[in-house]
Amino acid sequence: MTARFDTILITGAAGRLGTELRKGLAPLARKLRLADVAAIADLKPNEEALIFDLADEAAAHAACQGVDAIVHFGGVPLERSWDSILNANIRGSYHIYEGARKAGVRRVVYASSVHAIGYHRLEDQIDASAAHRPDGLYGLSKCFVEDLGRLYWDKFGIETAALRIFSSFPEPADRRMLWSWLSFDDCVRLVAASLTAPRVGFTVAHGLSDNAVKPVDNRLSAHLGWQPQDSSEPFRVGLEAKFPPPDARAPAVQHLGGWFVDLGHPDDEASK
Amino acid sequence: MTARFDTILITGAAGRLGTELRKGLAPLARKLRLADVAAIADLKPNEEALIFDLADEAAAHAACQGVDAIVHFGGVPLERSWDSILNANIRGSYHIYEGARKAGVRRVVYASSVHAIGYHRLEDQIDASAAHRPDGLYGLSKCFVEDLGRLYWDKFGIETAALRIFSSFPEPADRRMLWSWLSFDDCVRLVAASLTAPRVGFTVAHGLSDNAVKPVDNRLSAHLGWQPQDSSEPFRVGLEAKFPPPDARAPAVQHLGGWFVDLGHPDDEASK
Amino acid sequence: MTARFDTILITGAAGRLGTELRKGLAPLARKLRLADVAAIADLKPNEEALIFDLADEAAAHAACQGVDAIVHFGGVPLERSWDSILNANIRGSYHIYEGARKAGVRRVVYASSVHAIGYHRLEDQIDASAAHRPDGLYGLSKCFVEDLGRLYWDKFGIETAALRIFSSFPEPADRRMLWSWLSFDDCVRLVAASLTAPRVGFTVAHGLSDNAVKPVDNRLSAHLGWQPQDSSEPFRVGLEAKFPPPDARAPAVQHLGGWFVDLGHPDDEASK
Amino acid sequence: MTARFDTILITGAAGRLGTELRKGLAPLARKLRLADVAAIADLKPNEEALIFDLADEAAAHAACQGVDAIVHFGGVPLERSWDSILNANIRGSYHIYEGARKAGVRRVVYASSVHAIGYHRLEDQIDASAAHRPDGLYGLSKCFVEDLGRLYWDKFGIETAALRIFSSFPEPADRRMLWSWLSFDDCVRLVAASLTAPRVGFTVAHGLSDNAVKPVDNRLSAHLGWQPQDSSEPFRVGLEAKFPPPDARAPAVQHLGGWFVDLGHPDDEASK
Amino acid sequence: MTARFDTILITGAAGRLGTELRKGLAPLARKLRLADVAAIADLKPNEEALIFDLADEAAAHAACQGVDAIVHFGGVPLERSWDSILNANIRGSYHIYEGARKAGVRRVVYASSVHAIGYHRLEDQIDASAAHRPDGLYGLSKCFVEDLGRLYWDKFGIETAALRIFSSFPEPADRRMLWSWLSFDDCVRLVAASLTAPRVGFTVAHGLSDNAVKPVDNRLSAHLGWQPQDSSEPFRVGLEAKFPPPDARAPAVQHLGGWFVDLGHPDDEASK
Amino acid sequence: MTARFDTILITGAAGRLGTELRKGLAPLARKLRLADVAAIADLKPNEEALIFDLADEAAAHAACQGVDAIVHFGGVPLERSWDSILNANIRGSYHIYEGARKAGVRRVVYASSVHAIGYHRLEDQIDASAAHRPDGLYGLSKCFVEDLGRLYWDKFGIETAALRIFSSFPEPADRRMLWSWLSFDDCVRLVAASLTAPRVGFTVAHGLSDNAVKPVDNRLSAHLGWQPQDSSEPFRVGLEAKFPPPDARAPAVQHLGGWFVDLGHPDDEASK
């Protein structure tokens, strides 16, 4: 990788994936601007940090100034109350896209999620042309930002690669992750490919490592130039010993979204 | 039509289409509960009025209590500032769906819009399986509510018929409306069919009268039992005399969204 | 209609639809050969009767001799025990196709059924390219005969029009029939069109009158030259008064197969 | 129809369809410029005639000067020698499109043919997205001009409606025409709709009247605003009495192209 | 592979593939119950044998008792008389599925065949959504069991992986097998993957090794987690030396079913 | 590879790819007949040369006599004047197909081009079923020959593999070639596979090496038995250092055809 960018903004830079992106994307840019609502540890010389809430419009706009590309991984990463989702993911992402537009940024790489399509089933073998089927408020906010990216491409010429992250963890941690796991390295390579592909337009890709069981089809994003290189197979024996076989008829096994489909409404949960 | 419902809630009841729905849906229910942020004139004995802002969560939830079905036509009907769209259309619609869930309402008929798919072209001949391509913040909010309806069906069993209204006016008023017009009577019949169809699940339909030029395909909503009966043809001679022929290469002629695709960002406009 | 055939064999001629076909197809042939396991009443001069069980191979073959076309409506018309279905529908239909092959018959019109696709949902809007999804042993036997017809076309050049009859009764009798009804006249016209179309090859068509709610798409059989002319609408008010509104989430309302999807295994039922 | 054009050029104006177009399109333009290689009879005051061979580049270019739209129906109308097809249909049509480009003409309506897709079968139920499958050199030249029109739209912004004419004659003349017939009136209405539709881009439409048997799907050209209004049904009894029933397995019955698929190579025929 | 099952029933265990499955599946279960109509040689300690005809309903039901999963490879493996096919494949498979239902078995892996789709052509590049096109009575029985599996999933919640075996032999034995070969190891791995995949529902997969020429698409079964690992390439030179190049126009070369499409009716053959 | 052919005719044998094919295809045939309008250097013992213009019908026909297969790579390889394209590519290719027909040749491998589909975009991810969208006269002539091949297969039983060559050069020479490059070895292997596949019928394949960015889908030609083995990745660093990053919104970056879409009409250019 050559340093083709001057400055890349990474939102959510203090998070699990943000930390990996700091390392992985460093060769691509002279400088990484890191944004998060939480403090960011161990700043390197090529990094600068901005601490703000995505719901803060002015701060978000300011963060986009002077940036060549945006890797937008910030926001609430799980099912949460409507207010949290609304502020961090819906309003926050809108602020980032508006910031991009005002600052003339040309490409956004967005961390969408399997939960934007969580109610499709494994055997549906969907590809990126499948309809949205969110499995909760979190997934709904991901659908919103995908559509926001589509609008900003059609109307304002800002490209978006919407990467539907499945389960990106250091290791697969349960039986579902045997198929849904995205290794950190594959995740970083996917973001890097999305930043450097010659043409993105508005592209949706599914973020899964090269696991044996493949329940979605990534054909429609092959122009990103990404092929996953890791696999969950080395973890199979251990995980199968640890967890009993799943019931194929259970909603959480049936659907791409896993246990998210078993969740009730987050505001009900909160009030319990 | 027989009065199969006890109470139907109509939001946006003071609006252009709301007024038509009051007349047209009266035979379907014992009582119509009318909601709007504006005053509602000429209440009939079968009507009751609730005046509130959809952004008011408590009022919206209260309006849904004791209701059999919801016809959700309220909200901002045009491109407007982000704050207006966010409050009236995104937050407001969320409040209505949450109200429906808490009150056990089983079916929602939602006024989506052509502007959810405004960047598709006429010759694309899309059907309801086409991807969202909003042409502005207004259309983006319509996409959001469609996905919200999808979620509430998949997770909570509340049906939604999302009706993408094209141009519903007393008469077609320009050359584009020769194909985009939806007569008031066809509109009311479409809502009535959506309320009474045996099975809706989550269904998207395109609201257009039986005009000569047909740029979208309604095949995937044929189970709603609706066939448009009006046509713009009687208005053709008059409109062609009044307006010059369009340039087929102009973005506003090329795309389903019409002149919405020519609009810039509403917040830019506002600041001018 | 002109009498283009010398002799048409109608199986199931004593049944509900067979009786209609005797009247309706008379103009198409010099002679109708009527077959059934039950006695056939009121033979007309242009008719001859053969009483035999379709499971009787020799009798079935004999019935096909000297015939120009076969309208195969015989067999068990409802969910029944495996032995009944096996003998009458699977073995019986095989006997008829073998009879056709040995006798050089060129075209078969077969009464398939909605129950070959009963587990598809109304909002799936399937067409004739959808996969088989039978809703019971009866539907399974219909799938078998469709595949049998496909084989006899590909290998032996015998054409089949497989007509998936929905609900063909004198009048629609319940709320489901408001969409699933096939009037007797439309049914007879569909069979006549299938007999006289210039080219059938192997074609699947869905037998539904021109009812308001249309849950399947007949596009792929438009070369048969059939358009339904009747509608269930005149019966709507009466039926809606008689039966309560359905629950859209009930399996029998959700699926094309209606209450067949609620049935258990017929052999279990029999043993109760 | 209102006279929205100043001058329309009609090529092939002395031919069978050209004569109809002269009458039918007169209300659309102040003047019709008629071109043919043969003499054109009975010029009306609103008409002017140009007699030249389409292979004559300079004459073809000159004919396009000062024209608002072109109805290109000229060329060899049947299977002929390669040299004839090459000169009249391939070179000739190229001259017309180049003429259009040089003269700034914005829309061309082209008489393509069923023979561009003649090797598809009736039961394939193709639509305008099906691949080219020409059934002879004539059909091959029609494919060429469709692709030429596509190029001139993509590169030069000249719209084309490519109308695949099936069998346009005063009356259906054989059994095949019971499904392939395009009445003169429907043909003229199709050309007029193609000239006046708000947006054509590059659109392919199938030119068939509203006959009972419908072997192709016109869904993808519904934005032209054309619905056929005539039918071959009144001619059925007469034609069925005159011609024996077809053999459904004969190539000429099986394929859309009819007897063209039985033709050998035209240059072989010529040398016999 | 870990022994996740207590007992797996393998039908057809004395056959060519059954012998391989005994070896290959042993690690997956504590015990293999082997069923065949022929004697089973060399029973191992982890095996038990049941000798019965699949047409024997009671024996088939008994064989399913106490079983965790069924690998149903029994029945007639080639084109045979109708009576043989009917008894072994149609009635026999029905007995196995009923046995599974009565015994509460949750998953069946079924040996379907290329001959269920034998009349599709290589260049059609079909996937698992293609229609059935059996090439004989054998293939017809495979279609029947696929539909039976679909029914038992939709109605009774028993999963089926229907594996369309192409040519599973120790080595490719003719030119066709250069593309149709399925190595024994790949076959065993496919069955093992089908037994252990988290979710099967009703899934159709095509059983072919990783040969150079790939005439079908296995995209729709990627959730089984199977990738073939063997290839026919090492056998190419030998086979091309031994057999002349095929005629690409021969029906047996054109179609997936190979020489099965050249067969007449098996009962005709038998009577010669 | 074994020498399965007696004589293969290679047109364009003096060109860049022709030279590679002489080396690569030598093992497949006893003799290579080389044709070109230019002199052919360094004839080997297994080669014979014919120097003629493809527009010379008699010479082209003569070249096809006694040939087992034709590798048709001759003609104008770039955008040129209409007359050049017409004579070399349209008339010339027609002469070759007619030569093949008269000489009884059974298979043609044709060098089509990305420019037959140059106006599709990278993110469209088209496959071989996509419509022609030529990006110039050169691409238009490639579309013509594809349709010619389709005709000669449907009507005369001559197979064609139409290989859409993207950028076949010794090395990728600019940023676009990082995705469009086809190595010489992959090109030769693709031609060899097309010559030896058991069944080609009429097949379109896309000629691209196994580069990281993959903007087209080759699924529909998997029966050719070709997998590219080279990749542009080793050239990435050098090319990215040499050329600036592209603008994703530039037409030449957006479309498959690259800078061809920026070209005006070749006859305009010539007259400058």
UniProtKB/TrEMBL annotation, chains A, B, C, D, E, F:
Keywords: NAD, Oxidoreductase. InterPro entries: Epimerase_deHydtase, NAD(P)-bd_dom_sf. The keyword Oxidoreductase applies. One of its GO terms (molecular function) is oxidoreductase activity. The keyword Oxidoreductase applies. It comes from the Bacteria. Residues 8-168 form the NAD-dependent epimerase/dehydratase domain. Belongs to the NAD(P)-dependent epimerase/dehydratase family. This is NAD(P)-dependent oxidoreductase.
